Amino acid sequence: MVSRVIPVEPFDLVIFGGTGDLARRKIFPGLYRRFLAGQMTADSRIIGAARAELSDDDFRATVAKAIAEFVSESRQDPAMIAEFLTRLHYVAIDATGAGGWAALKDLMREGVVRAFYFSVAPTLFGDIALRLSQHGVADAASRIVVEKPFGRDLASARALNATLALHFDETQIYRIDHYLGKETVQNLMAVRFANILFEPLWKAEYVDHVQITVAETVGVEGRGAYYDKSGAMRDMVQNHMMQLLCLIAMEPPYHFDPNAVRDEKLKVIRALDPVRPQDIVRGQYLAGGGQGAYTAHSENPHSTTESYIALRVHVSNWRWKGTPFYLRTGKRLRARASEIAITFKEPPHSIFDDAQGWRENVLVIRLQPDEGMHLKVMIKEPGPGGMRLMQVPLDMSFADALGDDHDDLPDAYERLIMDVIRGNQTLFMRGDEVEAAWAWTDPIIEGWTARGDKPQSYDPGTSGPEDALMLMHRDGRRWREIR
Ligand code: NAD
């Protein structure tokens, strides 16, 4: 199978925070891979902008190190890396002062796409937006890419939207959620809307429930101070998991067009019921496996921030009446696994009895590891011995289906950055979407704060707190195993 790589228009891409962790681990390695794939034309440039006083050559050396560390060896082509590095430039800049802005303006060219990636602390987003427009660095066609977190509640998200709107139109703002750049997540839309098979069944009448799991094995060590102010609800549910839920629950958009898709996602968020206290389980990991407890990592021995959360959520509309969506995410769990599982109902009339081994159909969409999908279907167990049923997966692992091309699938960041250059906002969150997500999240957090709820402890390496199991058992259901 041959991938089609279409070069994007020539661009000047400025990475604010070009010496930071995200730039080093994700942005530059990703840009190099796109360059290697032939997607960057010869006259495109990448300009690092950060506080450190570096020459172009110093900066190129830091990017070369990042490529050596974070790009797979099979793609490390010394001649191509050297060529890529010639596209890089650097400007020392102070986001909160006047230094560096004139130099940056002089570097920018007319007639190419101008994009500015804000890979800096969110407290600097407003400062950078202001100075880009004040110093005439950005023009009416420029695009800005804003990292997460986008606010920490509705009020701060609104304030940030308002600040950005002073200088940029909504069509210029790309709020990044890297989950939306994942191959399988986009495949959710392809599977739902490019096939006749699933959509007729995609509703409460046929779907028993949906589970969305994002499990991590790592704790918060190293980012404890930041995480303690956030917690799993703000860090994962309000953004990434909400986006996944939207893609599963939304109505078919009239066209695969950025605003049509985002309009449908917004309707889902607005249709979410408030979550009842008994439908929320929060947890915090204990010490174990040679690692400290959450409270040691957060450096606050009395912290009540959750490193785990499970929620039973309901989308209040015709399509989903009575079908619960169970969300759970946590740190230091048994395995690193992200998946969406759609469990279908029983056939209306069964000609087989339970002893014959009937199980429900499940469509599993795996985000990591091993991106892919499988549909569990019932078949007859082979051989003599009468009609015994067994459940087998109809598999669509991308690695198998796409062969060698699978290694060439761009990672989420590189795909999203190329979408910015192409001017396609479909996979970016619109301002009203982010605000609606906070409007749903805020009362949940305010509720547990007012009640003084404490998170339940759980052992590392497990699937989370006991009460999370009860959340499902109570409804006669079970979580899928985390593995
Ligand atoms: P970092 O602390 O490693 O890097 C911050 C960068 O900002 C540095 O290049 C620094 O020089 C620059 N900077 C700081 N103050 C500045 C100023 N006054 N003027 C100009 N430049 C300044 O941070 P990071 O981990 O790379 O994160 C960057 C952004 O990406 C944050 O919004 C973060 O929430 C988000 N993010 C990071 C990750 C990750 O994996 N690191 C993941 C998701 C989102």
Strand content: 15-25%
CATH topology of the largest domain: Dihydrodipicolinate Reductase, domain 2
Supply the number of structural domains: 2
Radius of gyration: 24 Å
What is the CATH superfamily label of the largest domain?
Dihydrodipicolinate Reductase, domain 2
Helix and strand element order: EHEHHEHEHEHEHEHHHEHEEEEEEHHHEH
Quick gist of this model?
This protein has 483 residues and is α/β, with parallel strands linked by helices. The protein contains 15 helices and 15 strands. Nicotinamide-adenine-dinucleotide binds next to helix 1.
What does this structure look like?
It contains 15 helices and 15 strands. It has 483 residues and is an alpha/beta fold. It has two domains: 137 residues, NAD(P)-binding Rossmann-like Domain (Rossmann fold, 3-Layer(aba) Sandwich); 273 residues, Dihydrodipicolinate Reductase, domain 2 (2-Layer Sandwich). A nine-stranded mixed beta sheet has the order 14-13-12-11-7-10-9-8-15, with helices on both faces. Strand 4, helix 5 and strand 5 form a beta-alpha-beta unit. Helix 6 runs antiparallel to helix 14 and helix 10 runs parallel beside helix 14. The protein is globular. Nicotinamide-adenine-dinucleotide binds next to helix 1.
